[in-house]
Structures
1.
Amino acid sequence: MASRIQAPEYSTHESNGRPQDGGRGGKWGVIVGVLRAIHVERLAIEAEYEGRIVALDLVLNTDQKFGFKHRLIAVYAPWDPGEHRTALGQFWTYVSALCATASHSWSVIGDCNATMSASETTTVSDGLPPTRMAYLDFLRMSEGYDVWTSQGDAHVPHTYTFANHAVKSILDRLAMSMKGTVAASIRTLHDFIPSTDHLPILASVALAPPISPISSLCLPTQNPSGQYPPRFRYPRRSEKHRFSTFASSVDAAISEQCLSAREVTDDASFDFRYQRLTSIMRECGLHVFDVPKQQPSTTRKLTSPAIRMITSGKCQLLLSALSQCAQYPSVQISLNSGQICQYGSVVLAASGKAGLHLPP
């Protein structure tokens, strides 16, 4: 599947799904994409968990030319009412062992196949589901926390990640280590992705580098998206005459430029015809149809420094840094969010910045 993903700016790391018994295709499978500017070290995974786990150490650079490792673990957790509970527990125990050997911070993202409360699923069950108990045990063993739970806004009607017939649940999750994590958030995206009953999730993570050596995280920035001209506004019911006006204008322009007199016989003549037709339709469209106008921003600027700090998210970073570095007389903080994005079983780690600056 990795070869079908058209993302040249990312390096892909795939754990192929296992072949189905007596059928075609495979089941499970995980693909992770990492920005090529980030150095990646892939960890070896036991054969038993092939198709379920991809573990990577991302070497993140700092502005002091110092790099530290963040362990990213993408998972497709088991869920099968017929599976033995021991296999479910062994899976999360193995993931916990991967987290325990991380040199600094870690994150686990993917289809965890677990809910954390009754408000995260429309399914009614007696007692605690075994998948939830296994996931909770993993968080306790690994000294981590679940980001959906920490946000407090996980509610299945609005933030579900899985929908199948009458069942909706929040199964795709992000877990972060207490160590080295300043802040994290997660939300669902309502983009259509074929051949899956899951919605993509987008997570933003702010990491703090190890205290020694003192440095701040500096990741490469992505190129800004291109700017495109606005589309023409579709005419109202009372303005259907615009279509005939547009067609007449295009015909007149083509006749005036005698495009039909020049035959298309090679690449050069094709490019000429294509460019002229594009220019004609664009110019006639601007003359006949309306174009949406961008409304000027009326957002009022915050003048209070304290409120600006709280709304920018830096207050939490400041409190975290002060609690860890109380021995220093002064602390300065800089923060931009990194992003980890999952589309189904595909995880993309993008760029960002997080930093802790201490006096020498």
2.
Amino acid sequence: MIMIMNRTLLKLAALFALCTCMIAARRLEPSFNDIDHTEFAQQLQHAIRISRQDAPSAANTTNTPQATSCSSPSSQWLKSVIADVSEEDLTTFFDNHLHVLPFVYKLHVAPRHYDQEYFGLDGEYTQEITSVHNQAQAFWSYSGVNDEIYLLSAHGSDLADRHNKLVPTLELLFHKNYDSDYTVYDHAADIQDLITRLPGGYNFPLLTFNAFATDEMDDEYEASSIIIGDGYFQFQKALGMDSEGPEYAHTHEFSHHLQFLLGVSDTKSGIAQVAKKSELLADAFSAYFLAHDQGGNFASDEISNVHSVAFSVGDCAMSNEGHHGTPIQRRCATVWGAGLAENEDTDKIDIFEFQKRFDTWFERVDDLIDSCQHLDSAATSRSHGILSLQLMSFLVVGGISMLL
């Protein structure tokens, strides 16, 4: 049984809170809270909190064009992944933040060998990710975005190396909580024992179901990065969305680096901690780049797949402060961004102008329906359609009467 449980984590949280000033200044000391407030970590925790039940509907139940329920593909997938995990093991998994460890290792412990990074369990997405990264760097260079954004990957398999990887990571996070009765090696052994009981072992998707952007990781490297875990690619593959899914994942996170320039992303400890508006803006930036003929230059069917991928990562936790947009809102943000690329006369739009237009669109984001129209616009269109139909019926009937 792993001994470092909730009370210890509360003590750690208090310790990290006391060190907030140092963290903000140096962006060095890792914290559970930093990574736990990223998009997929929050979605993961929400899926667990609702105890394998559908998220409660927050949709309008009146007779409107809006859907009567909110269903999140990612939440459904998460619940399927944990279906065969015992409640005890699941509790221990999250009490000890195993979903954070591979990311803390890569960001704060691992030596920097950027040319050795691979994406996907077997590196199957490496070429796609590196290619779109180079395209994005070139496309957005006019904006002043950092020209040295490094690509990092998170692998559950790193936790299998007890001495060189897992133990240093645990010491970094828990060093004040070990003693002669329970050492870091005892903790590492317990964690590895738990992982062997999980479906897929070190490839269990929840160990690495996350992707986020970092501004600067530490004083030595001064590096900005995009980090994507294997679990995210496993999720996309499970939903049959791994054709355009990797490009969406990367360009969405790259868009957070544009937001660092705009000043709209909070970056505690260098890790982007963003909520609904920033996530939807990142979706819009992503689709704009992918649809632009000087960017990804995606065909219409490929952009349609991007819309579907964005839909799949939406969540239904509307009352949660970490809510990042419903599936419909996520999809509609990519529809709006891609439409801007297709309709814009200029070569590339200034990112501040882009944000200004997005802000106008976002003002009514809660009124969006499946068609990405607003409720009143859809109602008006429907009324016009009914009126036109009535007029046609009148004219046809009148014409027949005259003929008779």
3.
Amino acid sequence: MGSIEEASPLVPAISAAGGGGGASPAKKSRTRDLHILSFAFLFVFSAYGAAQNLESTVNTEGDLGTISLGILYLSFTLFSIVASPIVTSLGSKNSLVLGTSGYLLFIAANLKPSWYTMVPASVYLGFTASIIWVGEGTYLTSAALSHAENNNLHEGTVIGNFNGEFWGMFAAHQVIGNLMSLALLRDTEGGEGVSGKNLLFTLFLIFMIIGIIMMCFLSKREEKLNENKTVYKTEIKSLIKSSFSPLLDKRMLLIIPLISYSGLQQAFVWAEYTKEIVTPAIGISGVGGAMAVYGIADAICSLIAGRFTTGLNSITYIVSIGVFLQSFVLLWLLFGYKLTGGLMGILKPLFMGAIWGVGDGIFNTQLSAFLGLIFKNNKEAAFAQFKVWQCAAIAKYIGAIDGTHISARIPIADQVRYRGKRSSQTQNIMCACAFNMCFTFVMTGWEGTANDSRIFLETITKSSNSFPLPPPGKYYLVDRIY
């Protein structure tokens, strides 16, 4: 199967009617759509990504920012289940334009944050986020297939190139948005708040408007599969049924674990990498720089991986490289990584972030290319399942729990009990942290000699501690000590 796949297009090439002169305009129009889509997402998510990172910091009253994000991702997961028939009915371009409206409303709500603005905006964004991502996968794959067919090119190569450029541009939003926040936000006197928030979110709003305008210039995709207009007149029940049809394909069932892992490895960066690796080595001020390195590596790798994609065989090899690289990081953390000082102490977390970014770039481009190749006749349903399983993998975990030692001044009579790992007096603090980097629980007062598992068991078994137990079916991420 591999030799056939690499040697010839998966769809027979069709010569342009009217001679060779017709190929060039078709090529221009398809790459034009790719560039517009990539830049539109860069503008939209440079604003939204940075705004999301700031929610728990700038909207602290009543935990409004944190709760809004929780509502948003719950809504996103639920609506992703039915996103396929919605995108099928609206069309991929209309879904993209409508999808950006939710991000615009969410940014606008942050200019006047309250329960009456943020909660409805979060619910609506969950809906529009589900259709914009299904619309993106559908539109990008459709444009790549049309480009390959009209220009007599191998469709696997074109799908890889298109996904490489898109995800490379998308990864750059992590750098641009965070730099805007760094430039405009300032701590107020006393450190109780920040100034420049309204100016920053106004700039975010402008970025959103530019992104929406760019979406409007996309060419309208006419799917050959949908030339029969009765498709749009079928019953809603039939459309919803078709959205689950990829689950009947064993290839989708086999790729679901990898899709779920792609979500978990992103959660690792948001939570564990910044908290457990970057902050102890470089400090909180170094988190932005480390994430910029991660984003740059992600963007460059997405472009390169896309260029080397030619079909299913190449996807397998490239994904294997991503698995190897991230496995190397995980084994390094488990068995070889130690916190050190000096230049090497700074470079090791940055190098680790760069390797992880390379892996993320590989998973983004190759999983999207795989679904585009295998489910080209049912793209909406395939990309809807992609987002459902990716979100569900993260949604099963509500945060992470770990312990940390904090230096303490202890009376001489009690110093032996409080002697920590480095012979200094410490308290062993157990913390629970959500994936938006907001602490949800802190248990203090335990001696430095106390075992982490003992603290954990005492904390969750005593109702007086008010530990936030996860709902049924939800979990905390912990290490092997717990």
4.
Amino acid sequence: MRYQPRLKNGELVKLSWSLVLFRWTNPGMWPLDDNPTERDCYLDRALVVSGFLTICIQVQGGFHYLRDNLQDLDNFFAAVSPALLQTELIIRFVHMAMHKDLLKKLLQYFYAEIYVPEESDKRSFSRIKRQLLGPQLITVFYMATLLNYFYEFGMNIMTGRRELLFKQAYFFDHRQLPIYIVLISFNFWASLLIVTMVFVDLNMLGEVLMHLNVCYRQLGKDLRSAAAHLLESKDKQNIAKNYRRELIKVLTRNIDLNHFAKEIEKQFTFRLFITFSFSAIILCLLLFKSYKNPAQNMIFIFWFIAKFIEQFSFGYLGSILYQTTNKLDLMYFCGDWEQIIYCSQNVEENVKLMKLIVLSIELNSKPFSLTERNVANEKASPQERVNSDNRA
């Protein structure tokens, strides 16, 4: 029923444990497989609607509790962080549900064309695993935060108190056993939905960006390899023409990667904006609660550490790809084309090659960054001219 990513050869991809956890605990947010049955579509919609309503119930109970405890600052600050996080997750939940089909297309292209299997390049794969330790560590801290909530719930049950998982209040008595069972069930389900949605974007985006980074770095290796091979040949009449053909192949791949970067922007930019907007407030509140009484606020300590590392990891992973794409123009400039022209005896092909080199540098004049602007900063005219040259 649920989409299972496959490599280009049809082999199933072994997902990271954090994505597997999200896929199983939050099935409504994961795309459906190809050709789903009508029953699967109805069940998927039911999961999405029920999940959305469950989180809305948590938000309503949280803000009702805040209104009732305006004078009690300790309880107020204990409840405002979960309420803000749940509000953030409602927005991200709706956006993710509306873009599941785009996510599926992005994952299909990623695992077919971008993903670097361990068998093909063990060194790059190992480096990617090290770079993704931060997102995985964040997942552990968020799960530890959730376990602390579960621990407090267990202690309340042992002492005979019917307290909810989060600080919530309703316009009715929620301590009556039938109502309490329903609400605590909603609490547990909502907590799994919220925690998995909190860490999935960073884990998914991190994996996509780091594999994309390897593909961008591979462009320079391919170009230098082609130049070295041609320089060893003795065909001085066609050496510039052959190098231009190889350069067009690299540029075509470069443009494909830039288009994929645009799809990443469509999928993640809005949710990242929402995450950073709420995180600025939540971090301040968590720091206040952690500092005030550390011994009794282990939940907020784990949560603060996870949130802090999360913001750091977003910047760290983004800066890696930013630095790589910032050097793409230099990569084309230092692609040994001057040696090719020096050896070539075809003046016309030399001129065409130099024009294409200038075009390559212009195409990659600005680095990748996740903003509302064009991700690859790819101008239409250079791309059209490269495509035109490719057709020629």
